[in-house]
Amino acid sequence: MSGAAIVSGGGRGIGAAICLQLADRFRAIGVIDRDRGPAERVAADLRAAGRISEVRAVDVTDVEGVRDAVDSLVAAMGSLDTVVAAAGNMVGADLEEMSVAAWSSVLDVHLTGSFALVRASLPALRESSNPSVVLISSIAARGIAGHANYGAAKAGIMGLTRSLAREFGPEGIRVNAVAPGFIDTRMTRDGAVQRGLDWKEFAGRAAAASALGRIGQPEEVASVVDFLAGPDSSYMSGQVVYATGGL
Ligand code: NAP
Predict the structure, then answer these.
(1) N- or C-end of the chain: fewer Cβ atoms within 10 A?
(2) Tell me, which fold does domain 4-243 have in CATH?
């Protein structure tokens, strides 16, 4: 087994599932997250499975901090083949009540965070024989009331994906995105609390809206990311793959 990946937001939810899934493919996984504790638990699981794993605790909006984190992870892992930007937040409010701080925070974490991670990873990705970037968009890019900042950020991720695919395609670097639907993570469980809804009711509404009649699990997003990281998607770039259960 060879190769290495870096995953931001790897301490929880979808990012953590991506770390564990990519461990079937890569020898080393670098975990970036704001909060060291959960990320260290994921890294410990990876090491228990025989992988090299290190954590860098950094806020993805800290562009210089992300560069230092990526540089030191690449130095520790020896190479980099796949980078996944899975760090994300949601700060909802109706537009007239939305503070500028809430607006900016969501755009910063998703867009500036992805920009920072990809930019810092490019020198190492250029050395890989199968360099792949995977960004995380959302079904919310189609519109989500009460979360205009999030819907705008996730639509922005689609534009970023297509732009980076064109910019780096000539170098053989593939850039794709996964757009999940409603996935059972802390983010959606917090969403239920914010709406004053019982989790079962909130999740049940999302399940009813989907074609498959159920919500998704983080592992069902991670397997799509893994496909986009691997050689079976070698002719895919600039694509957004929906994993929504038909939402
Ligand atoms: P989650 O369980 O809340 O995990 C998000 C992770 O990102 C947490 O570890 C969080 O750290 C980290 N993070 C947040 N802001 C950060 C920052 N500024 N710097 C570094 N790390 C930061 O959420 P999730 O549902 O797994 O979401 C993962 C990605 O999938 C996000 O991009 C989200 O928008 C996207 N997504 C989720 C769904 C869904 O239904 N869950 C659907 C579509 C897309 P802390 O614990 O410190 O906050």
Answers:
(1) N
(2) Rossmann fold (3.40.50)
